[in-house]
Amino acid sequence: MEELGRGFVKAVELIVSLDAEVVEITVRSLMISATSCGIACAICFPLGGLVHFSSFPGKKLFMSLVQTLYSLPTVLVGLFVFVLLSRSGPLGSLGLLFTPAAMVIGQVIFVSPIVLGLAVSALNGLDIALYDAAVGLGASKFQAVLQVMREARYGLLTAAVMGFGRAISEVGLSLMVGGNIKGFTRTLTTAISLETSKGNIELSIALGIVLLVLALMVNLVTGWLQRR
Amino acid sequence: MALIEAIKLEKYYQGRQVLRGISLQIDKGEVLALIGPRGAGKTTLLRILGLLELPSRGEVYFDGVNVTSSGRLRLWARRRMSFVAQKPVVFSGSVRDNVACGLKWRGRNSKSAADRIEAALGLIGMSEYADRDAKALSVGEMQMMALSRALVGEPEVLFLDEPTASLDPVSAARVETVLERLIKLRNMTVVMTTHDMGQGQRLAWRIGVLMAGELLQTGEPREIFCSPATREVAEFVGVENILAGEVVSKSDSLAVIDIGGARLEALTECRLGDLVWVTIRPEDVTFARVREQTSARNVFRGVVTKVAGVGALLRIEVDCGFPLLGVLTKKSAEDMGIERGDEVYVSFKATTVHVIRRQQLKL
Question: How far apart are CA B116 and CA B153, in angstroms?
């Protein structure tokens, strides 16, 4: 317990003094997760629009599959991306394993189900007459879809924020395909995991606090968006 | 040439047929109301004419062009129309933002947009609402805004789906007044649906009666009311004396029709032996205490079975071998001393009797 208290004091010192390592790891985490989340949104928002505005056999089944994947274990995605990118794998020649790019690929796969699912439910929550209203005012199909997406913007932003929150807090996948290489693929979560096992509790707690503050901010933003 | 022409439209929803072989022409500048009970297919027909939905079979021509199967042509036609839904739809933003939506998709130059938006708001008396949050409006105000949003692009055709059905009576009256003014003001083609015959009569120049997916009759409001094409139309538009009969003699166009024993005379194109429906408007029935010399071809002696009414008019039901409803001012009824159980003579002219050929049962 004493160790924890000392660690906490040290951690606050590290954060307040803007310790180079803490800052570096935090920035890298933010960059990787923001990129993943951005790419996931770029794929899932149009896809969500497509799913919402089209009817195809098995649509319900598809959506329950997507919702099941909300609880996709990170290590499973890690395993999949590892096999995909390992030297003997189908994309091995790209040499992406143990790079930030590999982590981004993994995180995109990991957060896409929740971003897609929340995007579709944001669109479902709107008045179905909005689309017809736009078409009835001379909008083309594409313009009408854009208008409906615009109406769903707070719901879509919530989806993006949730995706980001999941990406920044996962550890298994980053560890497996990023390799936790110092100064290259080390992120908040992988660093905590490593420093703890090394007995470097102060740094772990400092990084943990940063992660919690980020999670808190994500939560506040989501709450604020939902109240809109 | 008709501005909009529908040819043999059929529509199925999950195997259920909602429109049956509807052909219809709408001329430029005309105000057409599609009336019929709920579930008759009015909205579906309007949505197909307004190119929001495709028919299962049949074609829609706009300005002489078949726009049924080409998405590009449908968009071209839709940009010359506006559609206002029954339940007002609000986009997020201010009232002004909403009205701007009526312009932004039509690709008109934006230089005069601000002026046009102000004009469109002014037209419906909502200028002072321009900066309000559209979602905070009352339902009636939302519908007015939807109307202004539909008009700002100066469409050639305005489609209105039950424009007052989801409004309270006060808002409904306001929207109707605005519509009436707009129709007079602009040379705009309007196609609307309503389940309210009165609204159809007030706003439209031509009425189409739709029942169970079939367009049973189109014509001027008066024509529909005075000469309904079928018994269903007669009932829907509120014709009250509808009697089943058979043509038992015919000379020139004057026919004698047997109504369960009683015989009356009417002018009709129906032939001898035809089974018919006979309708007599209650306003055309006159009452007398004694048999008088009259030019009316139909005079019957009967017993008053019911006297009811509010205000200045009384509705009087008489049993004269068949039930007949007539109306009388309270004053005349008092002067004549007509009460329930009294014996009276009722008369109506052969020219006021409307005869509808009865559909033979198809076996």
Answer: 8
Nearest CA in chain A to B83: A136
Contact between B89 and A127 using a beta-carbon 8 Å cutoff:
yes
B133 vs B1, residue with greater confidence: B133
CATH number of the domain within which A134 lies: 1.10.3720.10
Chain A closest-CA separation from residue B179 CA (Å): 18
Q: Is A128 on the interface with B (CB under 8 A)?
A: no
Residue A207: inside a domain, yes or no?
A: no
Residue at A127 is within a domain = yes
Tokens of B24: 């219809």
* pLDDT tens digits for range B114-128: 888 998 898 888 889
Q: How far apart are CA B291 and CA B299, in angstroms?
A: 8
Residue carrying structure tokens 């939807």: B146
Q: How many domains does chain A have?
A: 1
The neighbouring-strand residues paired with B257 are: B247, B264
* Domain region containing A104: 23-187
The 8-class DSSP code of residue B43 comes to H
* 8 Å CB contact between A140 and A75: no
Residue A11 within a domain: no
- Helical (H) or strand (E) element with B347: strand B343-348
pLDDT digits (tens, 9 = 90+) for A59-87: 999 999 999 999 999 999 999 999 999 98
What's the rounded mean pLDDT across residues B237-250? 88
CB distance B81–A129 less than 8 Å?
Answer: no
Strands lying side by side in the sheet with B323-329: B286-288, B343-348, B298-308, B313-319, B323-329
Residue A186, min C-alpha distance to chain B (Å) = 43
Element (H, E) at B122: helix B113-123
ipTM given for this complex: 0.76
- Which phi and psi (to 5°) does residue A54 adopt? -120, 155
Residue A15 forms part of a structural domain: no
| Three-class secondary structure of residue B65 per DSSP | strand
pTM of the model: 0.80
Q: Do B101 and A130 touch (CB under 8 A)?
A: no
The rounded distance, in Å, linking the Cα atoms of B56 and B138 is: 37
**Residues sharing a CB contact under 8 Å with residue B232, sequence separation 6 or more, in sequence order:** B211, B216
